[in-house]
From TrEMBL:
It is a multi-pass membrane protein. The chain crosses the membrane at residues 12-37, 43-65, 86-104, 110-131, 151-173, 179-200, 273-292, 312-333, 340-360, 366-391, 403-423, 443-462. The lineage of its organism: unclassified sequences, metagenomes, ecological metagenomes. It comes from hydrothermal vent metagenome. This is AmpG permease. The keyword Transmembrane applies. GO terms for molecular function: transmembrane transporter activity. PANTHER family: MAJOR FACILITATOR SUPERFAMILY DOMAIN-CONTAINING PROTEIN 3, SOLUTE CARRIER FAMILY 33 ACETYL-COA TRANSPORTER -RELATED. Keywords: Membrane, Transmembrane, Transmembrane helix, Transport.
Length: 471
């Protein structure tokens, strides 16, 4: 118990928690608050569902993640370090984008709202790369047993940023503020995250040494060192050509060591199993994504008020997630990553059936509270185990790239499939047979409960191949 307390009282855990808040907050901007704003603006459920496709950006952020491991920002990097300099830049851009959204209206300027939402998604997904890399880098290699604790703090922070700050946005709307004013008011939270970044300690890393060695290896493959002397230029034209060749060699070596080496390292370490790991990551939380994408629309349609949604879904749900995340980290440490994922996956799917029952009985606050209670426990449990699992797979020299690759694959699965969640509900509504089972929402949530099965089968296979690593 004392060891557990020492882990959570480490000041690094506080900063990981606050970074988690910074990571969750943008999902209010282009997620929950935007969903309700779009609904108030008169958009259809199908349109709202497809608007959520802006989250597809989170699925491809691994493409530029290597740059965050390598590229230095003039003035900022020298003063604040690699991780903090990028956070300061990105959080400043996020603040400006939120303010810009506050001066729009989706009822009249849907294109501009969409473009700004994409901008928020790009900045936010890039910020996530840095925050995830910081969370892993801040621990020493021998502290890997603390990964579930860092995952718990990051998860708790994310839900506070998404839930508590999201609840504030919903309350402001319900108390008479128009959505433009709400966005302008909550933009101040982005300034708070900038202040937090200024207080962070930049983690120590051997990243530059490893990257430098990789670059030299690629230079050797592309002609070797001292290439200029080897070319033996005589005339001025020869010297110009030789300079261009050397420049090409060094640029190519930098590109390969920055963009290719991190991905090569991942697939070399795990071989063919890497494909199965990525498929598992893609599919594990798809059912949860379907539920999450349509949950606010569902709550409103069956008769809950915005204040009730804010209280139960945001405040109560987020408070429980903070507590449950810490409990989940303890369970994950005790049972191991794979068994923790297996248990949480089954529980997560089973909880979706509670929402089917809620759809059947209508706006019963008791059932609503129970659904939120169970959903937040299983969501916290699955997320903590999932984040710790992914963190465990990264190479410290390429933290940002490899974690972003795996997280992007997970986001891709959730975004690709869940983007059609509204279409699924509308399609089910058009089917006469669903009335026999309680209506379209009842059937919809039952279907989401089955979506975890393929990933659990893959998890069993992965655990047999790498049992000594994950258990």
């Amino acid at each position: 118990m004392n060891k557990l307390l020492d882990t959570y009282l480490d000041k690094r855990m506080l900063f990981i928690f606050l970074n988690g808040m910074a990571s969750g907050f943008p999902w209010v901007i282009i997620g929950s608050a935007m969903t309700l704003w779009l609904q108030d603006a008169g958009l259809t459920r199908t349109a709202i569902g497809f608007f959520g496709s802006v989250f597809a950006v989170y699925s491809v952020n691994w493409l530029w993640a290597p740059l965050l491991d390598r590229v230095k920002i003039p003035f900022l990097t020298e003063r604040f370090g690699q991780r903090r300099s990028w956070l300061l830049l990105l959080q400043s851009l996020l603040f400006l984008l939120i303010v810009a959204i506050s001066f729009t209206n989706p009822a009249n300027n849907l294109v501009w709202v969409s473009l700004l939402a994409i901008g928020v998604a790009v900045v936010s997904s890039t910020q996530d790369i840095v925050i995830d890399a910081y969370r892993i880098d801040v621990l020493d290699i021998e502290e890997k047993n603390k990964l579930p604790a860092t995952a718990a703090m990051a998860t708790s922070g994310w839900w506070v940023g998404y839930g508590f700050l999201g609840a504030i946005a919903l309350y402001l709307s319900d108390f008479g503020q128009d959505w433009s004013s709400v966005y302008l008011i909550i933009s101040v939270f982005a300034l708070g995250f900038i202040l937090n970044t200024l207080w962070l300690d930049e983690p120590e890393s051997q990243r530059e040494v490893v990257q430098g060695k990789a670059q030299k290896r690629y230079e050797d493959l592309l002609g070797g060192r001292n290439l200029f002397e080897k070319l033996k230029p005589v005339t001025l034209v020869d010297r110009i050509v030789a300079i261009q060749i050397v420049a090409w060699q060094k640029t190519s070596a930098w590109f390969l060591s920055t963009m290719v080496e991190p991905l090569k390292d991942f697939f070399v370490r795990f071989g063919k199993t890497a494909i199965v790991i990525l498929l598992f990551i893609m599919l594990f939380k798809v059912g949860e994504a379907f539920l999450g994408r349509m949950s606010l629309v569902f709550y409103k349609e069956i008769g809950f008020t915005t204040s009730e949604i804010a209280t139960y879904s945001k405040l109560v749900g987020s408070t429980l997630t903070v507590i449950f995340s810490i409990i989940a980290s303890m369970i994950t440490v005790h049972y191991g990553l794979v068994r923790g994922l297996m248990i949480s996956g089954v529980a997560m799917a089973s909880t979706n059936l509670i929402f089917s029952y809620l759809a059947f009985v209508g706006p019963d606050t008791t059932v609503f509270a129970i659904a939120i209670l169970l959903d937040n426990f299983t969501a916290a449990f699955s997320t903590v185990a999932f984040v710790a699992f992914i963190s465990h797979l990264t190479n410290r020299a390429y933290t940002a790239t490899q974690y972003a690759l795996m997280a992007s694959v997970g986001n891709f699965g959730r975004t690709l499939f869940a983007g059609g969640s509204g279409w699924m509900v509308d399609s089910l509504e058009a089917q006469k047979w669903v009335a026999s089972f309680g209506g379209e929402w009842t059937v919809f949530f039952a279907i989401t409960a089955l979506m975890v099965i393929p990933s659990l089968i893959m998890l069993v296979w992965i655990s047999k191949r790498f049992k000594e690593i994950f258990i």
